[in-house]
Structure formats: C-alpha cells, structure tokens
Amino acid sequence: MALWTVHGNGRQLVDDAVVGSGERLSWPLTFGFGLQHLIAMFGTTTLVPLLTGFPASTTLLLSGLGTLLFLLVTRNRVPAYLGASAAFVVPMGAAVDHGGATPGALLGAIMIVGLVVFTFGVAVKALGVRLLESAMPPVVTGGIVLMIGLSLAPQTVSSFSAQPVPAAITLAVVVLATVLSRGMLRRLAVLLGVLAGWTCAALLGQVDPARLDAVARAPWFGTPEFVTPQMHLSAVPFVAPMVLVVLAELVGNVKAVGAMSGRNLDGQVGDALIGGGLATALSGAGGGSALSSHAPNVGVMAAARVYSTAACMIAAVAAVVLAFCPKFGALLGTIPVGVLGGALLVVVGVLALVGVRIWSEAGVDFADPVNLAVLGTALVAGVGDLTLSLGALRFTGLVWGSIGIVLVYPVLRGLADAVSARRDAQRPGRGWQRGQW
User: Fold this and answer.
1) 266 secondary structure, DSSP code
2) Which spans are transmembrane here (predicted)?
3) pTM score > 0.85 for this model?
4) What are the helix (H) ranges across 267-383?
5) Res. 129 pLDDT band, cuts 50 70 90
6) Residues near 380 by beta carbon (within 8 Å), at least 6 away in sequence
7) Sign of the CA dihedral 242, 243, 246, 249?
8) Whole-number Å distance between alpha carbons of 289 and 104
9) Residue 20's closest CA among 257, 268, 188?
10) CB 63 within 8 A of CB 297
11) Which residues 6+ apart lie within 8 Å of 360 measured at CB?
C-alpha cells in the first residue's frame, strides 16, 4: 500500500484545493514544496547550535532524523518539520553562565526535556481527547498559535531591515504570487520569492563574501561531530521550564494544521507529543539542539495549502544529506538574511492569523474579562520576550506566555466560574428560593 495517494493528476491544482497529509503531488513538485520547508527551517536550525556551542551539521542531521521519526510515530498524519528551537538559547546560556553547565550536561538536560514531553504524550494518548479538551480548549490553543507566530515578528523585522532592497523584492514576489497567480505559482510563492530576492542580492553585491568563500572552501563530504550527553543536575533547573514551551509548540502545530486543513487532528496530539519528545531526546543523545515544530514551516503550509507529509519527508531527507555535504549547506547559507526576512514576514503573519481563526471558529468571547486579562497579558509577555530572573534562573517571554496561557488561564477560569455560580445561587429565584428553609 502506498504511503501517499496522488492528489488529482499530481500536476495541477484548483485554486481552493487543499492537499492533505496523506496525499502528494508529482515527485518533482513535492520536491519543490520540500525545498520551501528546507529554506524556512535552515537559518534557525544552523544558527541555534552556533549560539549554544553545538556543531551545526550535527543539529541539521538530527533535525532531519527527528522529523522522520516524528512522521513515523504519527503515521504520516501530522505534517511538521522539527527544527532547532530558538527558545532554548537563553536558558542554555544561563545554565552555562550561572550553573557552570558543560556541553554534555546541556545535552543531558535536552534529553530529559524530550523524555518528559514523551511522557505527557503517553498520558494524552492513554486518557484520550477529553484530557486535551479540558486542559487546552480553543481559547488556549488559539492564543498559543498567535503568540508563537508574533514572537517571531521582532527577529523577522530586524532581518528585513538589515537588507531592505532584496527583502522588499522577496516580499513583493511572495505577495504578488500569492494574490495574483493561480495554480502552482501560488503554491510555490515562498520559493519563488526567495529565489528572486537571492538573485537581487547577488546582483547588488549584498551576498556576504565570507559566506561565498565558505562555499568554495567547504568540502563535498564531511562527517558530523557527535557529542556525548551527561546526566548532570547543573543544567536541568535552567532548561526544565522549556518543557512547557515544547508542549505548547507541538500542540499548537497540530491545532494550527487542523484548523487550516479543515481536519480534526485532536486524536493525533498524543502521537505528536510522543514523536516530538522522542525526536528531542534523540537530538540530545547525539549532540544536537533541542527540537520542536518549526513555526515558519507551519506558515509555509498555510501559505501553500499543501499539508503533505511527503514534502516534510523530502525536507528531512535533504537535511540529512546536507549534514554530510558541507558545500551544499554552505551554499544555502549564502541566502541573505534580508531575503529570509522578506519571506518570513508573510509566513509568520499567516501563522499568527491562524490563531485568530481558531478563536473565531470557536466563538471565543472577548467581552469576558478572564479572556481579556490573561490572554492579553500572556501575549504581550511572549511577543515582547519578557525575560526575568528568579535567582540564577532566567525565564524568557515564551515561557512566561506559555505559563500564562496554559497554566494560569484554566485556574482563573475555574475561579471566575465558581464565583459566578456562587453569585447565581445567592440570587432570589436561583439555587435556593425564599421561604425554602
């Protein structure tokens, strides 16, 4: 039995068609969509290990293998690419500066985060969808998706501003291809925009010469460097709060894809958490950065309306190949930061609005003071990257935002409902009646 059925004739799509997770187009077109995913994740997945002191090629290899493991665990039902999580950079830096954590200790902490996420996934799968619905209703998941999307806005705008001309060309091509074109041109708008912006930057001499030299010097074949993890408590307190962020990102990915593709994927959340947890544990075991569902890749799917896991598989296999081919990796590394900023400006915006769509379809009441106070505060904390220290521990905006949305909201919701019920019970004609006693 084939892993994917061919959508239509595999070569043409009507404008409103959605390619599902179990479908694919022709392999050349699927490769093109996979390339879009590869470009979307490449910058962060190679930058994060450099910021945290891990080999970039190793993280690239393990992100590809982790994605393949995720697709296997979810049985090709949840499209996703698991890239290096930028949310881990600050807490891991704090673990080194204040806790004296070694690279091996950081990897051990990453493994622990992955195993805890895996345990949550087993619990969700065992207890069923009701656990998810009670813990993360649409008002919560919509807020998570919106926060994750908007949290990328400062970085995206900064990248755009660094090279405004090629960034503007990229943005214009992506928007025009999305709005004015039809068929495959619309679906491949991100790839077309990146190619146009990359060409513009090359003509203007805005491609970093050092990166061009790196392409010339890079060998065609190289073996990634592996690092042995160590189970040491020095890093765990700093990295442990990131469990909540990984949980929020993985659940948000499933909810976002479900909302965009018109499918109810709640039954797959347990498998997604199991797959994501195992992928992160695998990455930590081999010397790679922590992995999570990559928000830009979700935005790429939303823009193209292609949710085929075959495209995610192509991106994962390409990442594995690039890990052993430094020259191709260096070539992708020449994509100017402004070009990526121009493309992500559209992709991140689309992802953020998916969160609004989840709220809209669920009929979330924004006259409710609990919704306004908690969600508003959590979103500002997450988007503004509110970073506070508690002793030697540092908590980033995504942690605070996730705590506010996932943990504080249900508590205040329950308290508000209890107070409201008590008031209703004390009103004449409700609960007890006058003369009842």
Assistant:
1) G
2) 47-71, 78-96, 102-123, 135-153, 165-181, 188-207, 231-251, 272-292, 304-325, 337-358, 395-412
3) no
4) 269-286, 295-304, 309-323, 326-332, 337-362, 369-370, 376-383
5) low
6) 386
7) negative
8) 12
9) 257
10) no
11) none
Q: What angle do CA 60, 241, 387 make, to 5 degrees?
A: 90
pLDDT at 320 over 70: yes
What's the pLDDT at 183? 62
Tokens at 274, concatenated: 């199991």
Q: For the chain, first and last CA: distance in Å?
A: 71
Which whole-number Å values give the CA distances from 280 to 116, 117, 137, in the listed order? Answer: 10, 9, 26
Contact 291, 280 (CB under 8 A): yes
Helix (H, G, I), strand (E, B) or coil at 194: helix
Sole residue written with tokens 């765990």:
236
- What pLDDT, on the 0 to 100 scale, is given for residue 384? 82
User: Looking at the DSSP assignment, which residues form a beta bridge with residue 6?
Assistant: 24
Distance CA 388, CA 116 (A): 24
The answer to whether residues 269 and 117 touch, using CB atoms and an 8 Å cutoff, is: no
Rounded CA-CA distance 307/300 in Å is 9
Q: State the Cα–Cα distance between residues 251 and 255, nearest whole angstrom.
A: 6
| Residues in the chain, total | 437
In terms of Cβ atoms closer than 10 Å to its own Cβ (0-12, 13-18, 19+), residue 162 is middle
Domain range summary for the chain, segments of one domain joined by + = 19-358
Name the token pair of 338: 């402004």
Beta-bridged to residue 388, according to DSSP, are: 395
